[in-house]
Structures are given as structure tokens and as C-alpha cells.
Amino acid sequence: MRHRLLLLGLLQIGIAWATVLHRRSAPAAFSKPLSVAVDYVNPRLIGNGGYSSGGGSGGMVPSTAPPFAMTRWVAQTRQNYVSVTLYNYTNSVVYGFQGTHQPAIWMGESGPAVVVPGAGEVRSVFEQRGMSFSHAEEITTPSYYSVIMNASEGGQIYAEQSATSRVGHLRFRFENTKTPYVLVEATRAFVLGSADPTNVTYPRGSILIDPRRREITGHNPERQDFIIGPNAAPGFAGYYCARFDAPFGGFGIAQNGTITENETHGDGAVLSGFARFAPGTKTVNVRVGVSFISIEQARRNVDKEIPDGTTIEETAEKTRAAWAEKLDRIKVEGASHEDAEVFYTGIFHTLQYPYEQDEDGHYYSGYDDAVHAGSSYTGYSIWDTFRAEWAWQILLAPERISGMVQSMLQDYKEGGWLPMWKNIVETNIMVGTHADSLIAEAVAKGFRDFDLDTAYNAVHKDATVPPQDDWTISYSDRQQGVGYEVRAGLSSVYAERGWVASDLHSEAASRTLDYAFSVVASASGKNADAAFFRARAWNAPFTIFNNATGFMEARVANGSWAGQDAGWTEGDEWAYTFDVVHDIPGLIEHKGGNASFAEFLDQHFNGGHNDHRNEPSHHIPYLYSLAGAATKSQERIREVAKVKYNNSINDLSGNEDCGQMSAWYIFSAFGFYPVNPVSATYVIGTRPFFEKITIDLPNAKRPLVITSPGAPNKPYVRSVTVNGRMLDSPVLQHADIASGGSIHFEMSAEPQAWASDTLVSGTLRPSPFPCVIL
Ligand SMILES: *[C@@H]1O[C@H](CO)[C@@H](O)[C@H](O)[C@H]1NC(C)=O
Ligand SMILES: *[C@@H]1O[C@H](CO)[C@@H](O)[C@H](O)[C@H]1NC(C)=O
Ligand SMILES: *[C@@H]1O[C@H](CO)[C@@H](O)[C@H](O)[C@H]1NC(C)=O
Ligand SMILES: *[C@@H]1O[C@H](CO)[C@@H](O)[C@H](O)[C@H]1NC(C)=O
Ligand SMILES: *[C@@H]1O[C@H](CO)[C@@H](O)[C@H](O)[C@H]1NC(C)=O
Ligand SMILES: *[C@@H]1O[C@H](CO)[C@@H](O)[C@H](O)[C@H]1NC(C)=O
Ligand SMILES: *[C@@H]1O[C@H](CO)[C@@H](O)[C@H](O)[C@H]1NC(C)=O
Ligand SMILES: *[C@@H]1O[C@H](CO)[C@@H](O)[C@H](O)[C@H]1NC(C)=O
Ligand SMILES: *[C@@H]1O[C@H](CO)[C@@H](O)[C@H](O)[C@H]1NC(C)=O
């Protein structure tokens, strides 16, 4: 045992050392493979201090938990609600440690558990219980976090945090304090939308203290997104069981700041329970099991995931191993320290959503408010993730793909529809039914371990059945009091003429384009339907292509144009005119051929219209390649990567959006991107960001090795060889990479003819855009 403890001690020292290393400015470059990729994850800095809108923030937080964990634990530096994250680098006070289900900025929290250490008089009121800390005394890794805080009675509290999927593990060490305690918060007031801080709601929960078992248990029905979406989920709650390793010296209940000593039970709003420990107590460990099913289940989760006697070092080691299992599969050579941090932190971000919603083979479903057998996931923003995040998860986490699809099919069975944006239940956020795309892509890439017939019925329903009262409800963004939004506008002009009418529905032009992107029928082999959907998919987008302006534009029911400001979902006519990813040749034809399409792309970029902060622009730099102007894709992609990603607190130019921002970076670093994800192809972009990348894909027999010697000084692609075969077009098949192999880029310092006929034929001047060399 001593030996083991020594090893674990070294692990902690290793973690601390790695962090110290991160704080120093790192060596400019290193040439040996990164063996411990986990140490390059920088969860504290990357993406959590910038502006919540208008760019400059990933909106992520430094959380500890394994990949896809049901609960992630985070030091809470402010009260979190929609558009406000619970940790913000600009803050200097910790108010507790939260087991959050929303470690990000874009949606509301659901049933969190919060644990607050303290010393002195018990302080339950949020504003009064904060303790100052300094970033210099924080350690942040994916598996372990620690911070030193000043206690209110003097002295310090050294808090350490780790977690498994459903259980948080905290260790509090009290230095020079007299009366240590730990408070467990059941319920709090929360702001309904950030616009009006006085508009609050008070969920009513419960708390029960059992000094004999050293447990504080309770439940919290808070669901901040309850005002949107069709599912009331009346039985929803987060349940928890906090088990301590030290005997209680005293205890009580706090309700909205009023303390009742020796009380073991409380119900209501703004409620907490606390345990005091004998004066002089040095260390208190608490493990907090979280459940969506019951307190008993939360207790079972503790016993199963972090049984009595487990040290926090053991928990951290296990969680670190879970990250290493994924991150060490990818080795990069020739990366600067900054690039390596951006790259591996990106991977860390791509493996958080959707998160596990099942416990011990069962899950609570908010769709029918019942507990079912099976596994389940929640926390999607499919409008974002269908682009590249899903393709990336298919490569790096294939063992979860069928289960994730099966989970969406359960949502369909229990709620009647596939999810759009599921945050416990449907929230109707964004437009389109891109779950269809996820399922089609999974099928196209060989995943079959789910009920294919149900899958077909579910996507067929999306494509053919309009929402309730489709003629009279516009389904505007976050409209309250409406049913499932799905393909709003399907029953109006769309079915007959091909566009969603902008006088009847919000975001009509974006809807028209997004609804067209559905090729699922062919993937499922229903050929009669396939012909119908193909015709629709190929025709509908161009019903809103305005020949007079050369842009997509919304139309009203009678066919008139609605103007270029109307009908967009988080984008404009520039981004959305390129939104025909399944038919780029058709779009090129409408734009007058390759040369004028490439010129249009130049106008888009040179005019500052490419808004990489949001997803509709993500595929656009790749489109030059499909118009015979690959050298220009090579320039643009490098530029976007350099300008929009770095390892500062403002690192991501836009919200991470469940991993899509980082998935763009990761694929671009490999040298290719899934422009049309359901086609099972990738478009080759720039040279890879690093000289050599070795990817040990879980389902592949051999590693995928991507080489591009001399790349840093040679930005242009001369040729690409895949498993020894020269590529004459810039398109890779999924089969080329899925089972490993080699991709070799020959690079050049000068623009090359490869895949660039349009430019070489002299119809275009060389780009004035400066080429970026990293
Ligand atoms: C972090 O806090 C700063 C200062 O209050 C604020 O400007 C920024 O929007 C916050 N960032 C996030 C992601 O909440
Ligand atoms: C904590 O308290 C000590 C001693 O009073 C003080 O020197 C230090 O600056 C405080 N730290 C923070 C982060 O407030
Ligand atoms: C509070 O906010 C909710 C959600 O935005 C809104 O429906 C409600 O009308 C607001 N209440 C008041 C009193 O402003
Ligand atoms: C809690 O107390 C504050 C002031 O002390 C009061 O404004 C608020 O309404 C109370 N909340 C509840 C839910 O009782
Ligand atoms: C709480 O219980 C303890 C132990 O029985 C007792 O000493 C103490 O006086 C009680 N406190 C109050 C406020 O009732
Ligand atoms: C645009 O022009 C093409 C070719 O002349 C025509 O087929 C198409 O109907 C026109 N589109 C619209 C929306 O008017
Ligand atoms: C079509 O509808 C728009 C408003 O929805 C109206 O301004 C326009 O005059 C109508 N055009 C025709 C030809 O009826
Ligand atoms: C446009 O470029 C693509 C990609 O190089 C090529 O396949 C296609 O044939 C070109 N189209 C025309 C009309 O030249
Ligand atoms: C990092 O990227 C953000 C977002 O694009 C940008 O605002 C910031 O200036 C960049 N910081 C550095 C040091 O390059």
C-alpha cells in the first residue's frame, strides 16, 4: 500500500509540475511526439473569460470529469444562468463547487448540486459566502482541480476536486481555522434570462441530514430552460447524496439565510443543509453522488463509482486515464506549445457533449416523465454539431455512436420526435431537424447497432409531418408556449413550391436551405422515398436563389422576395448563400461556374463576411477546393485557424457549441473537413498544421499517419498520396481513413496547380490575400 500511495503522490506532483510548466512561457517548439497529451489540455485558460456574445469566448469552463460525464465539477465564481457561465477567469472569489450539467454558456442549468466549504459562522447566502482566491494558486487539469481560498474567520481552505461521471470527489483541508463546516445547497434563486436580473424564480427542493451515516441528501427541481420547449418534465429533479468521511460535530438547515441548528430536514426555496466538524479538524473528504432518478440511486452511484475508502488521488488517476485513453491516440510532431494546447484542449472540448443521462442501466426521461431501462444521452445542439463534431466523434469515440443514436430514437418513442436541441428535454433551439443528418451519417459510415426501422420512421416523420398549428405559429427563436418546432413551415408553401414562406414563419430562408439537406432515405434503402427526397433536396435550395442579386433570399408565400435582411438564423445572405453543402456543383452552376464562384468567395472573405464565430461559415473556406481553386482554400484555412484560435482566455472567437468550434480546428489541422457530412467524404483543405500526425483510431487496424514534411515553410499542396495512391481531386473517402493508413502531403512554397485548374487557367488573378505561415 505504501508503494501505491507513493506513486499516487507522484501523480499529484506530476499534475502540479505540469501546471507550473504551463504557466511559464513554453519553448517555441518541440520535435518529439507528445507522449502525455493530457498535460496540454488547458481547461482554465481556454475559452472562459471573454465576452459572452459578439465573439471572443468559447464559453467553456475548467471542469473535472471523464469524457461524456453526466456531471462535471467546477469551482463556482458566479451564479450561473443562460448566457452566464459558473466560472469566469475575470473573477477572484469562489462561492462553492458545483456539479453542473451545463459546463458552458449556451443553455440553462438543470438540477445542480453545490458544495461549499467554510470556516466560522455558517454562511449560506450566496453573496456572503464567497472566498477570495488567486489564479496563481489554482491547478487545473481535466481530472483534477485545486485552489486555496481565504476563510471568513481567517485561515485558509485548500480545496481539491476530482470526479467520475456521476460522482464528485472533493477534499477540503483546513489550515489555521477553528470551526470548519461544509454546506450543501439544495435550491437557489435563479434569474430567468440575463436581460432582467430582478426576474427570478424559486424552485422548491428538499434536504435531509443523517449524522449517523454522515450523509446530506436532497433534491433540486431547478431546470432553467423550463420556459422554453414543449416538454414540462414535471417530475424532473437532480437528486444527490453527499457522503462525508468525518463525523459531524453539529448540523442544521439554512433557509434563505435563516439558520436552524440541529434540524435534520428542510423543504422549500433557497435551501441548504450543513455539517460542522470538530474544532481542529484538518481534512474532510466528501463524495457527492448525483442522479436524475432518486436519492437512493444517487447513493448507489457513490457506492459504485467512488466507494468508501477511495482517495481523491485514486479518483483523479482513474479520470486522467479515461482522458489519456482518448487523447494519447493522437500524436503530433512539430507543434508549438501554443498549438499543442489549442489542439488538445479542443479535443477535451469535443468529448463533453452529449453527456450520459443513464445510471445503472436506467434513465429518467423528461419526455414521458418516467424511468426506463437502457442508456441515454442529453445535451445536444445538433444544428451546430452535425457539421463536423459528429464526424469527429465517429472517428474518436465510435464505441458510443450507436448508443447515441439509440438514445435519440428513445427520445422519438417517448416524446414523438427526434431531438433538435435536447437539454434534458427538447428546447426547440435553432432550426432544422439535423438529427436526420446524424443518423444518416452514422448509417453511411457503417453503424448499425440500433433499430434501423425506427430510425427510418423517425427521420421520415421529420421530413413529412409539420408541427402543430403550422399555419398560425411562426416558431420564432425561443418562442414560448409552443409544441415541438421541428420543420416549421413544412405544410405551407414549402410542400408545393419549395420554400418556407417568410410572412408565415421566422428564419424562413435558413429553414428552406436546412430542410433541403436530407438524404437519409437513400441511406436507409427506401428507394421510392429516396427519389422524392432527392428531388426536393436538389430543387428546394434554388427556389430562393435570387437570380437578380446572385444571393439566397427569403420569399413570402405569394413568391415575392422578402429582402436580404429577413429570414436568417444567426447568419446573413453571405453565409447562407453557401449553405447547400449537398449540392456545391449546383450552387457553382448558379453562380456562373468555377471562376466566378471563386471570385464570389474572394468577395466573401475580402469583404469581411466570413464570420467564423458562428457555424454557418465553417465550411466556406473549403469551397474553393471544390471549384478548382484549392490554393485559395489552403490560404484561407490557415488564416482562420491563426486568427480565431489561441490559448488565451479569449481563445475561441465564438462559443464552443458542444465542440463544433474545436472540431473545425481538429479536422483542419489534419488537412481535411467533412463539408457534406452525410456523403462520407472529406474535402482536403490546407496542409496539415503539424509535420506529422499519428492517429490511433479505436476501430482501425493500423494508425492513420498524416505527413507533410517541411510544411511550416511550405504552405501550398503539390500533391496528396493516400495509401500510396495519388489523389487527383481534393476529396477523401471516409473509407480512405477509417481503417488507418497513410496520407502524405508534398508541399511547396509557391502556389501549385494541384486541384487549382480554375486559377491556373488564368481566369483569376492570384489572391492579394497574404499567405500565413505558422
Ligand atoms: C466573464 O466576465 C467578463 C467580465 O464580467 C464578461 O465581460 C464576460 O462576458 C464573461 N464571460 C463569460 C463567458 O461569461
Ligand atoms: C488571503 O489572506 C492573506 C492573509 O490575510 C492575504 O495576504 C492574501 O492576499 C489573501 N489572498 C487573497 C487571494 O485574497
Ligand atoms: C420573466 O422572464 C420570463 C422569461 O423570459 C418571461 O416570460 C416573464 O414574462 C418575465 N416576467 C416578468 C415579471 O418580467
Ligand atoms: C429571501 O430573503 C430576501 C431578503 O432577505 C427576500 O428579498 C427574498 O424574497 C427571500 N426569498 C424567499 C424565496 O423567501
Ligand atoms: C444542538 O444539539 C446539541 C447536542 O445535542 C446541543 O448541545 C445544542 O445546544 C443544540 N443547539 C441548539 C441551538 O439547540
Ligand atoms: C433563375 O434562373 C434560372 C435560369 O434562367 C431559372 O431556371 C430559375 O427559375 C431562376 N430562379 C428563380 C428563383 O427565379
Ligand atoms: C406579395 O405579398 C407581399 C407581402 O407579403 C406584398 O407586399 C406584395 O404586394 C404581394 N405581391 C403580390 C404580387 O401579390
Ligand atoms: C469546377 O471545378 C471542379 C473541381 O476542380 C471540377 O470537378 C469541375 O469539373 C469544374 N467545373 C467546370 C465547369 O469546369
Ligand atoms: C485570441 O483569439 C481571440 C478570439 O479570436 C482574439 O480576440 C484575441 O485577440 C486572440 N489573442 C491573442 C493573444 O492572439
Automatic annotation (TrEMBL):
Pfam families: Glyco_hydro_92 (PF07971), Glyco_hydro_92N (PF17678). Keywords: Hydrolase, Signal. Residues 40-291 form the Glycosyl hydrolase family 92 N-terminal domain. It comes from the Eukaryota. Residues 297-748 form the Glycosyl hydrolase family domain. One of its GO terms (molecular function) is carbohydrate binding. One of its GO terms (cellular component) is cytosol. Residues 1-18 form the signal peptide. The keyword Hydrolase applies. GO terms for biological process: carbohydrate metabolic process; glycoprotein catabolic process. NCBIfam families: aman2_put. This is Glycoside Hydrolase Family 92 protein. The lineage of its organism: Eukaryota, Fungi, Dikarya, Basidiomycota, Agaricomycotina.
